User: Fold this.
Amino acid sequence: MEATGLARYQIMESLGQGSQGQTFRGIDRASGDEVAIKVLRIAGLESWKGFDLFERECDVLAALDHPGIPRYIDRFTSEQSGELFLVREMIEGESLRRYVETRRPLDEATLVDLLRQALAILDYLHSRVPPVIHRDIKPGNFIRRADGRLVLIDFGGVRISLSPEGGSTMIGTYGYMAPEQLHGEVTPATDIFALGATIAALATGREGDKLPRKGLRIDLSEVMRPSRLRDVLGHMLAPEPGERPPSAADVLTLLGDDPQRAMPPRSPRAAPPRAEARDEAVDEHALAVGDPLQTLARVPRPLSIIVWLFAALVTGVLVLVEVALLPAAFAIFRALKREGEGEERLAEQQREAIKALREGRRSFQALAASTRPTTDDDDRRGG
Assistant:
């Protein structure tokens, strides 16, 4: 029987720690290949949001297929520790952040090449249905392979955007995040801004938050000589989203490229339309029409605070059951059965149980979001 989970992978040295988990170098014992393994420790989470974002990263990577994005390999849970694991392709190369850390500005030809490659990746993400917004574009999240090919990593903050409305959890890095991210608004233009700030940082050898500014606008005239690239970056870095190029193809047009020739053919594969990935600010439509929870979502204050506490508690319990108790229970069932007896049926039952738990958790998450104490009464009533 083929090894699965921790039995299949050998975890080695740490590659880095992020807000959504720690990443390690690993070995896939089944293939002998090196892999990157991201680990999320449930015990260290302050809320279910980290769990949600980790699940979303797994789902999104599994649905993407592009040479500039790490290939999804596997996901699993440790029944003993309650840790979640995401296994993806290991990307060897140099982080673009090294050029900023060592204050080594890149020449314009290299910058334009990197910009074109990054735009091809964003064009692929933003053309998904619905669009996939990375939300944390920065030099440290790009790796340049030895042959010059660029790869975008760390999809821990990704959002599947079905609505331009604000209210989502603020994710991003100061100096690179667009102004609208401060109040949770996210569109493809948000990633366009962050990419512009990334290229500006590589052009100057300065971190994004150290670039000169005039008001909300980054003043490139102080740190870059006049050029078409500087003009394009100026458009990408417009403080107002509506003043930026709305798509990667539009940025290429500003560069003087033909987007039809520059962009590779788009894959028809769509991002998974997961309910909880719509937006962190779950509105009333996240609860099914006629759902009994809909009534609880509209109770007046101060009763709504009690409902919010109840929903948050149930959400936490369901996360615990899904991550720790359910896998442990099925592990016991497997141990009691004779080898190979009803294994496929047991696996199917486990998948159905996990699906039911997740559907219940999402309903209570929506209830908690709609009754949280910081939500205005008008917002709870739908305007």
The two ends are 56 Å apart (CA to CA). The chain has three domains: 5-89, 94-262, 282-380. Confidence is low (pLDDT under 50) at residues 162-168, 267-290, 375-383.
